[in-house]
Write a structure and sequence with these properties.
CATH topology of chain A: Rossmann fold
Oligomer: homodimer
Structural class of chain A: alpha/beta
Largest interface: A-B, 24 and 24 residues
CATH class of chain A: Alpha Beta
CATH superfamily of chain A: Vaccinia Virus protein VP39
Radius of gyration of chain A: 15 Å
Number of helices of chain A: 4
Number of domains of chain A: 1
CATH architecture of chain A: 3-Layer(aba) Sandwich
Order of helices and strands of chain A: HEHEEHEHEEE
Strand content of chain A: 15-25%
Largest sheet of chain A: 7 strands, mixed
Number of strands of chain A: 7
Helix content of chain A: 25-40%
């Protein structure tokens, strides 16, 4: 398995989980959260899946494709361990979905990020809302693992329901 | 088709073309060229496909994962429109494969890059060598288009044989 194989599997798993979440959520009301805008590819997919919902985006800076930029009212700019807290104060536990692609290249940096951000995600979600994450959030309270779509290998992506 | 869909299709097309090239080239002797190291995913795949060949990498800087870094003897660092010329002088028309992922986000920047780099690729290849590119190189002399692998949509990736 090369790194090219791995990224293809990861992106396909991400897409499958997002598509399944759109089905699962149906008409449940609430905004969507994108933790990490990056180049904006996943944001673009979220816009497609959730055309009628507000999508709030969190990132340190806006480095996405010009076509994939949220308006300033839907952008929490800065360190996510701070902006997630700010967002919880402003929005309350309102979101129906948070997608969090929070892994780095290195295992240690990823672990630090998961520890820093994991506990700050559940307070943003309403009961029954979903979290889709590239990293395991099993250790954090308030989130129950859900089965993955059948085409996603266990461990490749993670889906949780807010208790 | 979202940008997430597009990148998945592009990466799968890239992988299919590279895998097919490894089959086509068989034991034909010569090094492999990777134009654009990026995060090193494709380089990692090339190492897997061509374990016994030299792989020379061209990029402005090394920003790849630490596991995916060529040694300095196989790295042409700097602006590619210059390093491709330097490499042609040093290596001659020796390569059996050049993989070139030379598109940018914007169409104009991509066009400038294709115009700048396209003519500098054929002099690096031996007759019968292959060029695999995310952009069309149809306009450049010395390259004949080859059929794509059956799972690759026309236009998604491009394969040429050096005349």
């Amino acid at each position: 398995m090369t790194r090219l194989d791995t990224v293809i599997k990861r992106l396909m798993a991400q897409r499958s989980c997002l598509n399944a979440a759109a089905e699962t959520l149906g008409n449940m009301a609430g905004p969507v959260l994108e933790l990490g805008l990056g180049n904006g590819r996943t944001y673009d997919h979220l816009r497609f899946l959730f055309p009628d919902r507000e999508i709030f985006v969190f990132d340190r800076e806006v480095a996405s494709h010009p076509d994939c930029r949220p308006d300033p009212e839907h952008l929490f700019l800065g360190a996510m361990q701070e902006t997630l807290v700010t967002a919880a104060e402003q929005l309350g536990p309102a979101a129906v979905l948070a997608h969090a692609d929070i892994g780095f290249g290195g295992a240690e940096a990823t672990e630090r990020n998961v520890v820093a951000l994991g506990p700050k995600i559940p307070p943003l979600l309403k009961s029954g809302g979903l979290v889709i994450c590239d990293q395991s959030l099993d250790r954090f309270e308030g989130l129950s693992p859900l089965p993955l779509p059948p085409d996603v290998e266990p461990g490749r992506y993670h889906v949780y329901r807010r208790d």
